[in-house]
C-alpha cells in the first residue's frame, strides 16, 4: 500500500501503534542470537507541577549561614535549592534493541506532537541526537509533512555539524555510529547515514537498522506500513 497523504493527520494515532507493533514483530524474527527487541519509553525529567505552582521547597538561595558541623567533625553543605522532580516515561513509544542488557539501536516513528511546538521540537531533537551521542544506532521515520519548513533530519545533521542537502518530511533515515576516528585535534565517531525522501502514492523503501558496524537488520518499511494501514482500515 503506497504512502498516504498525511497532511490530514486523522487516523495517524491508530496507524502509529499498529505500525510499531508490526515493526517489532518484523525485527524480532530477524535478530541474531543475543539481541532482544521490545517497545519501550524514554524517561523525561520534570519538576512536579501537580499543584497550582511547582512543588518546590527552597532551602537556601544565594549565600547563607555556614553549615553546622556534626559530631564527626565533617561539615554538610546544604543545597541552594530543593525541588520535587519526577522521572516519567514519555508516552511516545519507540522500538528498542538491546544486546546483553545494553541499548544498541532504536527505531522511532515521528508523531505530530513531537513537532507541534518549539519546545517539542527541541525536546525530541535532543532525544534523537542523544541516541547517537551515546553510540546508539537510530532509524527515524517521519511520514507527516507538517509543519512546513521543519525537518528532524535536517536538525539532526545540523546538530552533528554535517553539511548535507536538506531532507524535508516525509522521510526515512538511518544512522550508524561507527568507530572512533580523529577529527582535527579531537576524537569523533564515523557516522554512516542513509536518507530517503518518501513520496505520497509511492511504496516506502527498505532500509537497514544497524546493530553494529558489521551487523544490521534490513527493514521493509512498505510491508510493515501496509499491514498497519490495512488494520486501521485505511484505503
What do you see in this structure?
This protein is an alpha+beta fold and 235 residues long. It has one domain. Helix content is 22%, strand content 32%. It contains 4 helices and 12 strands, in the order H-E-E-E-E-E-E-E-H-E-H-E-E-E-E-H. The strands form 4 sheets. A 6-stranded mixed beta sheet has the order 1-6-7-8-9-10, sandwiched between helices. Helix 1 crosses helix 4. About 11% of the residues have low confidence.
Number of helices, where a helix is a run of at least 4 consecutive DSSP H or I residues: 4
Task: Provide the succession of SSEs.
Answer: HEEEEEEEHEHEEEEH
Please, how many domains?
A: 1
Classify the oligomer.
Answer: single chain
Helix content: 10-25%
User: What profile does the largest beta sheet have?
Assistant: 6 strands, mixed
Computed over alpha carbons, the radius of gyration is 22 Å
Proportion of residues in β-strands: 25-35%
What structural class should be given to the helix and strand makeup?
alpha+beta
Number of strands: 12
Task: Give a concise summary.
This protein is α+β, with helices and mostly antiparallel strands and 235 residues long. The protein has one domain. It has four helices and twelve strands.
Amino acid at each position: 500500500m503506497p504512502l498516504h497523504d498525511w497532511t490530514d493527520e486523522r487516523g495517524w494515532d491508530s496507524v502509529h501503534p499498529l505500525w510499531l507493533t508490526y515493526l517489532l514483530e518484523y525485527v524480532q524474527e530477524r535478530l541474531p542470537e543475543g539481541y532482544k527487541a521490545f517497545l519501550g519509553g524514554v524517561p523525561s525529567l520534570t519538576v512536579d507541577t501537580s499543584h497550582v505552582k511547582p512543588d518546590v521547597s527552597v532551602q537556601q538561595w544565594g549565600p547563607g549561614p555556614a553549615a553546622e558541623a556534626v559530631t564527626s567533625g565533617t561539615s554538610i553543605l546544604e543545597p541552594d535549592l530543593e525541588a520535587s522532580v519526577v522521572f516519567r516515561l514519555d508516552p511516545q513509544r519507540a522500538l528498542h534493541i538491546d544486546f546483553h542488557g545494553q541499548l544498541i539501536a532504536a527505531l522511532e516513528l515521528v508523531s505530530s506532537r513531537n513537532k507541534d511546538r518549539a519546545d517539542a521540537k527541541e525536546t525530541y531533537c535532543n532525544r534523537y541526537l542523544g541516541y547517537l551521542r551515546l553510540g546508539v544506532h537510530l532509524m527515524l521515520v517521519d511520514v507527516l509533512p507538517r509543519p512546513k519548513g521543519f525537518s528532524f533530519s535536517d536538525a539532526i545533521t545540523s546538530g552533528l555539524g554535517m553539511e548535507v542537502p536538506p531532507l524535508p518530511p516525509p522521510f526515512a533515515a538511518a544512522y550508524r555510529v561507527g568507530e572512533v576516528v580523529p577529527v582535527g585535534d579531537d576524537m569523533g565517531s564515523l557516522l554512516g547515514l542513509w536518507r530517503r525522501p518518501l513520496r505520497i502514492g509511492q511504496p516506502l523503501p527498505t532500509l537497514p537498522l544497524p546493530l553494529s558496524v558489521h551487523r544490521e537488520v534490513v527493514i521493509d518499511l512498505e510491508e510493515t506500513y501496509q499491514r498497519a494501514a490495512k488494520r486501521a482500515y485505511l484505503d
